[in-house]
Design a protein that fits this description.
472 residues, alpha+beta, PmbA/TldD fold, 2 domains, 6-stranded mixed beta sheet, 10 helices
């Protein structure tokens, strides 16, 4: 592993961006620039095709944020030629924008108070991020695809790998920060056809690592294939409330949907989240702890500072059952009179900042999976994330999981039910948590939207945990 290199492009642009700020600060009370340079490569192999493409989130560009007349305005661009001409374009556009907003603005935002920070951050990355051996990576994926396809009744097996290098520069009158890091994503799916039915299963992993993450997937295929075969002919689960053990994948889905979106504090500003009314309240069992943050773990949503120049945090959302904090971008924090938590994120330099989750997860306790299974008279072990949604205004939750494995008299029976819909009232689900496992596992093979848009990479997870909830 080596330290990630700072973007040469951003470093070359830095003097011009500083000059731009010096010009614009004559017209505006606050000026900042976020510059981004994101590159990457995606590899995909299945039994029919092979492809190598640019990573989907690749981008290069800039966004200026200014403050005037009690509010903020922004202007994005993707090239710098003549700084004076660019400054005039930005000044004209943002002054016009400010005048329009000043006539209709009902919600004014205080001027951000920034501390002076000059720092350079670099994560550890594999050398292959800068000199990838495409043929070697494709060969690994081909071996993984071939192994998955070798099982009986598998009609196709695909394996993919992506590597992403991120560099971001943040400049203002008080801040001069640059950061670089790299993350990897891999997954392998198996598609099976048997007795007129089609079923699907997958394995995967993510992290601050290189293509060695592909090698780790081979050992997972046997169990994934068994789970896939068990899904054929499996009945629907009888609706009802059950003792349920959640796998780390299911735990992560609950963390993301239950108290992830519901504590994004830009929703507090708009009175769209009931959590605002319950800060400090006991809403979960005393063994329940939950966190979010780009700091504290190294996963796909980790970084050193967010898209507003706030240093990364690790925020404890639930402490010993009590709701103690939300997560917040800088502008929402200013409106609410609280400190930002480093959760201001953009889909791209062309999109606005929202409060967004990063790595969201339940903390660990001391119970083993074996202890949890032995404690269940009748219930299920649920696994495999399909989808989820929540209602932050009323604390409803719905999670769709791939399968539920029956537990009877403290033992797995081998009977499987599919698919599984987990529903309920969030405080009830969290208050019913009675056992929590020892090992926290996070995965970030996906994007999260703000409503139906504004997609950013996130991760979620936790340990195995036992609760009581409605399945159907």
């Amino acid at each position: 592993m080596i330290k990630a290199k700072q973007s040469e492009y951003l470093l070359q642009c830095k003097p011009q961006l500083k000059q731009l700020i010096d010009i614009l600060k004559n017209d505006f009370e606050y000026v900042s620039v976020l510059a981004t340079d994101v590159t990457g490569t995606s590899y995909s192999v299945n039994q029919k095709t092979t492809s190598v493409n640019q990573f989907s989130d690749s981008e290069r560009g800039f966004v200026v944020r200014v403050y005037k007349n009690g509010g903020y305005s922004e202007y994005s661009f993707n090239k710098i030629e003549d700084v004076n001409r660019l400054a005039e374009e930005i000044r004209t556009a943002l002054n016009a924008q400010s005048e329009v907003l000043n006539g209709i603005r009902k919600l004014r935002t205080p001027l951000l108070e920034e501390e002076e920070v000059t720092r350079e951050f670099a994560g550890d990355v594999s050398e292959e991020f800068y000199d990838p051996d495409n043929e070697a990576i494709l060969a690994k994926l081909k071996r993984l695809s071939d192994k998955g396809a070798s099982y009986p009744d598998i009609v196709n097996c695909g394996a993919s790998y992506s590597m992403q290098l991120v560099s971001k520069l943040f400049l203002s009158e008080k801040k001069d920060m640059i950061q670089s890091w790299g993350v990897s994503f891999t997954s392998c799916f198996m598609l099976a056809f048997k007795d007129g039915q089609t079923q699907f299963n997958h394995v995967g992993a993510t992290g601050w690592c290189g293509s060695e993450i592909i090698d780790e997937q081979f050992a997972k295929l046997d169990e994934a294939y068994k789970d896939l075969m068990d899904m054929f002919g499996a009945p629907n689960i009888p609706p009802g409330e059950y003792e349920v053990i959640c796998s780390p994948e299911a735990t992560g889905l609950i963390a993301h949907e239950a108290f992830g979106h519901g504590v994004e504090m830009d929703m507090f500003v708009k009175n769209r989240a009931i959590a605002r009314e319950h800060m400090g309240d006991k809403l979960a069992s005393t063994i329940t702890n939950m966190y979010d943050g780009a700091d504290g773990v190294k996963q796909t949503a980790s970084y050193f500072f967010d898209d507003e120049g706030t240093l990364a945090h690790k925020t404890q959302i639930i402490k010993d059952g009590y709701l103690v904090s939300g997560i917040c971008d800088a502008l929402s924090a200013a409106r609410l009179g609280v400190q930002p938590t480093g959760n201001g994120r953009r889909e791209s330099f062309e999109r606005k900042v929202y409060t967004r989750m990063t790595n969201t997860y339940f903390g660990s306790q001391a119970n083993t999976l074996e202890e949890m299974i032995k404690s269940v008279d009748y219930g299920f072990l649920v696994d495999g994330m399909d989808s989820g949604m929540e209602d932050p205004k009323h604390w409803g939750i719905q999670c769709v999981l791939s399968r539920a494995k029956e537990i009877k008299d403290g033992k797995l029976t081998g009977k499987v039910f599919v698919p599984v819909v987990l529903t309920g009232y969030v405080p009830d689900l969290l208050s019913n948590i009675s056992m929590v496992g020892t090992d926290v596992v996070l995965n970030g093979n996906g994007h999260c939207g703000k409503g139906y848009k504004e997609w950013v990479i996130v991760s979620d997870g936790g340990p195995y945990l036992k609760t009581k909830v409605r399945l159907g």
